Amino acid sequence: MMKVRSGLLFVAGVCFSLTAFAQDNRLINYVNPLIGTDRMGHTYPGATVPFGAVQLSPETDTLPYEVDGHYNKDVYKYCAGYQYIDKTIVGFSHTHFSGTGHSDLGDFLIMSTVGKLQLNPGVASDPKSGFRSGFSHSTEVAEPDYYKVKLDRYDILAELTATTRVGFHQYTFPASEHAHIILDAVYGIYNYPDKNVWTYMRVENDTLVTGYRQTNGWGRTRTVYFAMVLSKPITEYGWQNGSKKEVYHGFWGKWEQSRDFPEMAGTQIRAWFDFKTEEGEKIKIKFALSPVSTANALENLETEAPGWSFNKVKKAGQAQWEQELKKIEVTADKDTKENFYTSMYHAFINPTVYMDVNGEYRGLDQGTHTAKGFVNYTTFSLWDTHRALHPLFNIIQPRRNADMVSSMLAHYDQSAEHMLPVWSNSANENWCMSGYHSVSVLADAVVKGVSGFDANRALNACVATARHASYEGLGYYIKMGYVPEDKNGSSVSKTLEYAYDDWCIAQMAQKLNRQDIYNEFILRSENFKHVYDAASGFMRPKMSDGTFKQSFDVLNTDEPGFIEGNAWNYGFYVPHQPAELIELMGGKKKFTQHLDSLFEMQLPDSFFAKTEDITRDGIIGNYVHGNEPSHHIAYLYNWTDQPWKTQLRVREALDKMYKPTPAGLSGNDDCGQMSAWYILSAMGFYPVAPGSVNYALGSPAVGKAVLHLENGHTFTITAKNQSPQNVYVQKVVLNGKVLNRNYITHEEIMSGGELVFYMSGKH
Amino acid sequence: MMKVRSGLLFVAGVCFSLTAFAQDNRLINYVNPLIGTDRMGHTYPGATVPFGAVQLSPETDTLPYEVDGHYNKDVYKYCAGYQYIDKTIVGFSHTHFSGTGHSDLGDFLIMSTVGKLQLNPGVASDPKSGFRSGFSHSTEVAEPDYYKVKLDRYDILAELTATTRVGFHQYTFPASEHAHIILDAVYGIYNYPDKNVWTYMRVENDTLVTGYRQTNGWGRTRTVYFAMVLSKPITEYGWQNGSKKEVYHGFWGKWEQSRDFPEMAGTQIRAWFDFKTEEGEKIKIKFALSPVSTANALENLETEAPGWSFNKVKKAGQAQWEQELKKIEVTADKDTKENFYTSMYHAFINPTVYMDVNGEYRGLDQGTHTAKGFVNYTTFSLWDTHRALHPLFNIIQPRRNADMVSSMLAHYDQSAEHMLPVWSNSANENWCMSGYHSVSVLADAVVKGVSGFDANRALNACVATARHASYEGLGYYIKMGYVPEDKNGSSVSKTLEYAYDDWCIAQMAQKLNRQDIYNEFILRSENFKHVYDAASGFMRPKMSDGTFKQSFDVLNTDEPGFIEGNAWNYGFYVPHQPAELIELMGGKKKFTQHLDSLFEMQLPDSFFAKTEDITRDGIIGNYVHGNEPSHHIAYLYNWTDQPWKTQLRVREALDKMYKPTPAGLSGNDDCGQMSAWYILSAMGFYPVAPGSVNYALGSPAVGKAVLHLENGHTFTITAKNQSPQNVYVQKVVLNGKVLNRNYITHEEIMSGGELVFYMSGKH
């Protein structure tokens, strides 16, 4: 027996080695979800599938919005619920933004404990004041769709995975007479005080709990339904209701409501479920979400996660990731591959599916709708993601991007303001940031021939949005050709962004032969000229009387006239007309000098002290890569006589702004925009003006990239003589012919073929 | 021309007279919705159709729950939103309970004003402090489904009518440049502070507004959706958001949200809509409700009230009432007919339809359900209405009562506690009062052969409910045979009511041949004996050690052991076993003396000072007719040797407790129970123990009553020699045969036929 058993072990050992070896080739091994979890990245390390509706991830702190009557600045740190430097975990919640600079979500925190039941989360400085536990990175494993950590205080091993709509928890307990699972609906990630509006929960039977939660956070009027199934029957349960209001007080004596009473409602509800556990016993939880109903949540759960095998769900989720990552196969050094595939991972987290398996979703009108012929998505951080993420999708995820366009058109149909989304999430519009850049996403899809939606319907929605006079100074812009700063703030940012958006509409109109629309919007797209001040050489806030605003600090990020970018950076924001911008700013030579200054100047310390979102790591000179308005700037050298400076600066940004470490992201990942910039730039090209079919060439950071396109074609990019020093492009050959231009077209990529960069250390 | 015109006028005049004459015969002319609006009745004077989901009625006061930190006793006065003595109207809201002693609802207050816009309701003592208006009863008209009043301050004539799910307002304005319609979602009728949880509203276009409101009132977690259509386009609109929380503050500058911004959300929302009006111009509003969605509300609106003719809707609503009232045609003096038909009106207001035209409704689990094969109802005040209202329905509304039973079974299926309704409203269970008297309603329907539901499914739901050990002392009751006062309060009331409910279950089981269930519950039904204290001669609180509670005040309504009734009244509550009760209490002679004492004693003033719900008008001696536990007591003389005292006391109650005046109801109408007592007693019979097929005979107050039954049969009751003095029954003849018993059976009524009472001034 002994011998046979050894033999079996030996065989198993071989198998394991083979498997491990096979796994080594998987691209998911190059993904490190911890990248960006330290400081500014605002990514989360937990489990999610590509574009998943559930993002199941640890929370390291619970923060009050106000401290002693003052806004708590640390709230910004916890946009993703997790900071790498923290020492305690308070639990695992099911929804997270990836890389945002504002916060919300954090729904339904689950915490497992043993011993005396505590229902207060406690504080990090004194974990024993509540139910939180210390943890160590030494026990922490973060992979695509898998997260593991030891809850040291309780000797509980926590493991997380997910399907699109179901979070799957697995807790390995010690032996305990008093094992608890806490379901905390008080916890939330928030920018706003007391965001809980209402929570309703009910224990349907000893393994099923359902309910919903309404919040008034960044999403003003948001509801999430859930169904939670436990692998082991509850022996006892109860509630802590911290709501100030109670309605049953008159009849309170009717029931003992604190224990084993099957329903509870209020604004501050925590539930606890008790078990007896044996050493090493696993309690599993499947936790499904729905935007529509508890019945749909249960249907989602039963459809996506019918069994109890944690490993099967994890394996399926990781296979989904592998399939997505394989769409671009790169050859590069390990660090670059980690940066690249983690960027791919972060790029394919958002937007998120917002639809039940039966096709129902909550619309912007708060009603239930059924998505017909498309998958409905939410989490549209469009001021960020129109720049590179959606253009990346048009290459590598066009089917999904068409569904995202359909989702945006549904939003338009349901909008009380009759506008396309600005920043939308979970059936809410939070209006964050300037412009209406959904038109850029729609235009980019239309001009690139992405199919799956009605292009004329899309154009009509764009036009209605762009004519909405009461929106943020747009009426003035339409009438006067610019937004006057004394009438509506951030006027330069708005004027420049409206002009770009107008150009996008014109491109769509041209493609669709809508000449009248083209004429109207191509004219509007020239409006950037109206805020250029030749005297200072900058885009500058203009008043309604036609004069420029007198006081003007070109470095200040909070300068009136601008939003999340100073005049230096925002002044280059004419992505659709670089040549005209160059002419406006005094010609190629003067413009080149101006660009050089941006990259070369030394900023004073005071700049960093007062500028949110930006650190010294996030800049090159005064070029701020950590925020989006600058993302095209390095490529503008392509329109000067010194395109080699594009190659230099792009490679510098690729190298300096992205590191395969928790603190490796130089700014908020912003729902994948920072990552999409990396992916495209690392392959050697970038969409300076989405809505154009052209991609500006830069300098690839990978040796080779093979793009497996949905149309069956393959586009291969090779960088000959690639090295960290060889950042300059001597020659570009497309399908065997030297390319005498510094851009390639969308059609050239989508037709498949080979693009070869010949690299050198000299320009 | 002049002559022709006169002729036309003359013709029209004749037509009008003929119409008026024809209308004079309508039974709705005997309905006075103002009866019960003064003091205790808690009825409302506004517009509703039979069992309508919308109850559109004026509000005369808005009251804070607390005044200086103390519970505001006046809240009780405003259960129906209106008190006859008030001098101002603050607006008209769409939902009202009829006759309850607790409060909730009052959704979506509409007020029309002219002049300077005011958005604060103001106070009655100084109407100009807000938007409220003085009014006079001289301009007030209240009819079934029609209410009219002049808003004196603004010279606006307000008229209201309704369909089942749509409130129809018609406001006749003076000429004004500044005419306003205010939609106030802050207002509510409430027992609890700050009951608003969330309100969302959106202006879809210049004549359509939609949204919903969530409240945490008596219904703990309640949502109402609406769609409002205006007959005239809005020129301008805006919001007042009194919520403490705002989420858009960070992006507030994006929109001017106070004016013409199409959506608003928060806890304290008022909307205003502006118009210019000409002298005599009518602005009409159709306001539809839904428990499910704004889309359903709009569908309800378009289905039930497609046009703009106010009079057509009113006429249809009044025709519905006429049809219901005609089910019983009585011959009587004018006052008696007003009492009778107003009682019919009040009896047919509740329960209310809780289902959209497409069959969808909100379930107790807060999910959307579709009623298959039945109309779903809510507003089940069962502690009250099981006594006479549902038995009345089994005679005159059996189809509706079957649907009500189906609604109660759906409630059971959706109940987290797996219990039938106790007091349910709008997808909420408020657990009000003792017992679980839905079993009485189900049993009564089953034993009387009412069809339209599965009787065995009903029995199973009753049994599960009755075995729910953790419900209000029921575990002790099951184990010990009574509820011990030291373990669970109101123990005598509960013990007696459980015993009656148990008997109901036994009757169902017998009818359905479920012998085991019969045996279990017929045994339990004897439990009333365990709280009888032979020493004092009263039902008396018993302790868990088997001794009776020492201190014992038989007059005190708030006495431990009892709820809403003192030991004198509650002690007779063994409706299912009067003969055994009589034996227990010392035999017929002693029992008769005991009953006599109840009706003849003089109560001290202190009794009234501290007893809610009861006035000197509401009692005969110590017999409290104004609250329900006594409703069968006058009929108990039928089991003694002096049934003539039943006849005397019933006629005394009919005469004294019901007057055709605003103050004419001696207690809360309690969703029709007080009215149902009147209707049945005035016809000469009463269901002492619903669940039994027998009706105890009393003394008719009408000369004749013709019951048009749904099965096509007609049952005619005649009181020969009827007069106010001739209260005694000398002889009863059923279908030509002298009846030698003092009851008739359900089958005798439903078979049709003739019952003749021979009346006399002597017993």
Q: How many extended strands of chain A?
A: 39
Q: How helix-rich are the residues of chain A, as a percent range?
A: 25-40%
Assembly category: homodimer
Which structural class is indicated by helix and strand composition of chain A? alpha+beta
Q: What's the Cα radius of gyration of chain A?
A: 27 Å
CATH A-level architecture of the domain at 53-312 in chain A: Distorted Sandwich
CATH class category label of the domain at 53-312 in chain A: Mainly Beta
Largest sheet of chain A: 9 strands, antiparallel
Strand order of the largest sheet of chain A: 8-9-10-11-19-15-14-13-17
Largest interface: A-B, 52 and 53 residues
CATH structural fold name of the domain at 53-312 in chain A: Beta-galactosidase, Chain A, domain 5
Distance between the termini of chain A: 71 Å
The parts of chain A where pLDDT drops under 50 for at least 5 residues are: 1-21
Mean pLDDT rating of chain A? 93
Morphology of chain A: globular
- Give me the number of helical elements of chain A: 19
